[in-house]
Amino acid sequence: MSETYVLEAEGIGVRFGGIRALDGVALRLAPGEVCGLIGPNGAGKTTLFDVVSGIRRPDAGRVLLDGADITRRSPVWRARHGMRRTFQRQQLFGQLTVADNLLVAQEWRRGGADAERTGQLLDACGLAALSDTYAGTLPVGRARMVELARAAADRPRVLLLDEPASGMTADERGLLAAAVRRLADQDGCAVLLVEHNVAFVMELCSRVVVLDLGRVLAEGTPAEIRADERVRDAYLGTQTPTQSSHT
Ligand code: ATP
Q1: Could you read off the pLDDT of 13-39 as tens digits, one per residue?
Q2: 47 CA to middle of ligand 1, Å?
């Protein structure tokens, strides 16, 4: 039943000329769930994010938010209704401080800034000491944390994170995982993340979806995915030890 899912994608198809980037892809996220999306290069992960966030209209299929069809809604409409996305390329306001990056995000949605929420998020993301630092001067791992905090600033219900751990140190990945878990557990936010660091995905996510050649190859708990021979053949077997093993 749709009511139990905040986000659903059904039968998604996208073609680029002769390439089927996505073919009959389905995805469901319950409130408070952290779901990982993994797969080899070119599997269709970014294209699926583009479809869910409204940047690309699919050739087939539907996207539902709270059971309502939003396939033809714009990215801005989706954002105003509780969907947030971060990108592989960082998109902070470099000439604003870390705290102002968060306050701007809150103003945009609700017309008011919530200093208490900002303080909580900065603490949760290990950024309190950097709150007055210009975002443009931050190292990549910290900047990614600010992006997460900014995306979460006005309590989204769905958060799409595109390679949030890339460029992060192990310590920063630990902070990131804790912050994402807190958003899911405390705010009930549904989180979908694309990430090449499989160990990170397996630690953090309760469910993992594997895309390969535009189709869902497998879906299950991290343990189920690790044990799946098709996934090993298509993807996990090609990972470097640091990507595929727990560290
Ligand atoms: P990566 O892990 O490398 O980011 P991905 O899983 O995100 O890969 P996509 O970027 O979604 O994969 O690409 C899926 C397929 O669609 C690939 O074959 C890719 O070459 C193709 N593709 C993606 N965007 C376009 C585009 N704008 N024009 C043509 N083909 C595209």
Answers
A1: 999 999 999 999 999 999 999 999 999
A2: 6
